[in-house]
Amino acid sequence: MKAALFSDVGKIALAEVKRTSPPAGYVEVQVRQAGICGSDLHSYYGHWNQSHTFAHGHETCGVVTAVGTGVTNVQPGERVVIECFSHCGECLYCRTGHYNQCLQRKGVSHEQHGGFAEYTTAHASGLFKIPASMSDEEGALVEPLAVGVRALAQAQATYADRVLVIGGGTIGLLCLAVAKAIGVRETLITAKYPQQVEMAQALGADHVVDVTRADVRDVVNELTDNLGVDVVIETVGGAANFNEALATVRKRGRVVLVAGYHKPLEVDLARLVWSEATVTGSNCYGFSGMETDFQAAIDLIDSGKVDITKIVTHRFPLDDVTEAFQVAADKEMGSVKVHLVVG
């Protein structure tokens, strides 16, 4: 089968690889559509682990084609979407509803090919069936939307809150979309590129701060009479953005960190001490209340409360994966979300 493999920093290309049967507890999924994630770009740049043996890709929608021994929750022919990790279901965290903290957590395709291939192998614990009404493109967007669902749940955001999202990339835009869907009082989002500004406006942001033209601190101070916003969702990473979050949240407000941080930061903790703001992380997805974040994301899309395919700006066949990554990596080319159409 065909699979996209990294060969070096900034280099990914299609290769012929052996197609294998799924081991016990796993299923084989024929990939229909897959998105290029910010974490995939971190690997592309060499910031994170860059496997040269297995295909990456976890924003995946496909059809189950084979099941390994012991799998009972799905059958061949069923359409599924896939979480990015597996969990054991038996450790302390799994048993208390926090399976994203599983002590046996592994990548969902652990030592198997991911979504940038004709077939992926996924652990049964990470699979969700999707309704027939949902398109493959919508299915491939469930995973990043679930990240947004989790972030807003971690923030405990309500209709009374002003919510600022730092970052106009995919995750930032989807946090905005979830904030709008749950009906928060007012939304603000920062954006760096014209396509991000346009996308944020299309998703209904009340205020879009183009950081090339305005200072978000000034905008927040003007809107809140210098009080600060109730909630800040930080999706970019880096010390400057963490400090921006601490500078714009009100006293006793909430900051949620969603971004991927890959090195230690120098941040203004004095601000945190004096403001008594709460800072927490948001790790992928799990249960938020009585429902999984993944199922909530499926429901938001299927109900039409989030018109999610707006964020897909580019679509490439798997054969053009090299160009797809080049476009995804260069925001000057106008990309927000780049998809590979496989099946």
Q: Could you walk me through the main structural features you see in this protein, from its secondary elements to its overall organization?
A:
The strands form five sheets. Strands 3, 4, 5, 8, 9, 18 and 19 form a seven-stranded mixed sheet that branches. This protein folds into two domains: 2-129 and 307-341, Medium-chain alcohol dehydrogenases, catalytic domain (Quinone Oxidoreductase, Chain A, domain 1, Alpha-Beta Complex); 148-281, Rossmann fold (3-Layer(aba) Sandwich), CATH 3.40.50.720. By secondary structure, it is α/β, with parallel strands linked by helices. It is 28% helix and 28% strand.
What secondary-structure arrangement, pairings included, does this model have?
Layout: E1 2-8, E2 11-16, E3 26-35, H1 38-45, E4 59-67, E5 79-82, E6 85-86, H2 92-95, E7 106-107, E8 119-123, E9 127-129, H3 136-139, H4 142-155, E10 162-166, H5 170-182, E11 186-191, H6 194-202, E12 207-210, H7 216-224, E13 229-234, H8 239-248, E14 249-257, H9 269-275, E15 278-281, E16 287-288, E17 291-292, H10 293-302, E18 312-317, H11 321-329, E19 337-341
Parallel strand pairs: 10-11, 10-13, 11-12, 13-14, 14-15, 18-19
Antiparallel strand pairs: 1-2, 3-4, 3-8, 3-19, 4-5, 5-9, 6-7, 16-17
Helix pairs in contact: 4-5, 4-10
Provide the number of structural domains: 2
Overall pLDDT level: 96
Rg measurement, Å: 20 Å
Largest sheet: number of strands, sense, barrel closure: 7 strands, mixed
Q: Approximately what portion of the residues adopt beta-strand conformation?
A: 25-35%
How many strand units?
Answer: 19
Principal-axes shape call: globular
Helix content: 25-40%
- Flag low-confidence runs: none
The ordered H/E elements are EEEHEEEHEEEHHEHEHEHEHEHEEEHEHE
CATH superfamily of the largest domain: Medium-chain alcohol dehydrogenases, catalytic domain
